[in-house]
Amino acid sequence: MKNHLLFVALGAVLAMTAAPAAAECYADYKAKRDNPLRLHYGVIALPDDACASRETAAPVIAQRISDDGWTLLDVVSIFGAAELDDEKRKDSAGDYYLRY
Description:
Residues 1-23 form the signal peptide. 37% of the residues lie in helices and 28% in strands. It is an alpha+beta fold.
């Protein structure tokens, strides 16, 4: 009985530590498309492994937006969920708010 409880407790601890942490990070970026020249500002959700810096976020963003012919110009900033509901950010991004 004692061993059974020990295994149940150990299993519960392992289950809690194995669950991935939901970092919920986002970035705002600037992009362009040529012929004719078009620019846009956007906000994008990032996977946890791209949240460390603007440099780690850049290839993820560039790949996603390139499917629609956009070229990444700059990763402006990386921020958390608390800053996501900024009305100024939503208004500025328009159609590119969490599009990619």
